[in-house]
């Protein structure tokens, strides 16, 4: 998605890989494992400083939250929000849903939800951008954007474009 939008993209596997980046995307996957790897490879302390714009999808959203309901797993805690893991159900309850996203032009986004979290509480500086069935699934706090769904599994690049233009301000080097 980011390459298609003209961004220079590279994978981050070690702390040194963060140098000269203008933003980073934390992908979906298993949030506990990703959190442990972020700690082990000393990436988490750098991201916790809050200097680097971050977009977290699904597991990435969980890692960005300062509270994860019922869990003490590793996290970055950069967004003032509480999340509930697997909130929409297990794998077999995966679904797609149209999302009206504030600030994203061109009509509803198509969200792909796979064992997705949702946000149960936000701090005063968190802007809620989208809901599904009254549940918060898209939000922003300054340099941080988080979605509980996977826009990269669609052909719609608008949310990644929003990240580049509104959160990163068009910076060309991303991970």
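^ structure tokens above, recovered residues below v
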């Amino acid at each position: 998605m980011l390459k298609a939008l003209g961004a220079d993209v590279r994978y981050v596997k070690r702390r040194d890989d963060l140098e000269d980046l203008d933003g980073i995307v934390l992908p979906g996957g298993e949030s506990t494992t990703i959190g442990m790897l972020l700690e082990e490879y000393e990436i988490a302390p750098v991201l916790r400083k809050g200097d680097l714009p971050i977009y977290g999808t699904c597991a990435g959203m969980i890692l960005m939250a300062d509270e994860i309901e019922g869990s003490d797993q590793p996290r970055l805690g950069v967004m003032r929000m509480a999340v509930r893991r697997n909130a929409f159900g297990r794998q077999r309850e995966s679904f797609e849903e149209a999302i009206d996203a504030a600030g994203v032009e061109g009509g509803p986004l198509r969200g792909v939800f796979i064992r997705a979290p949702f946000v149960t509480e936000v701090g005063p500086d968190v802007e809620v951008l989208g809901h599904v069935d009254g549940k918060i699934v898209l939000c922003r706090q300054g340099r941080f954007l988080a979605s509980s769904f996977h826009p990269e599994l669609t052909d719609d690049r608008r949310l990644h474009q929003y990240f580049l233009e509104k959160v990163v301000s068009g910076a060309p080097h991303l991970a």
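The chain is about 20% helix and 30% strand.
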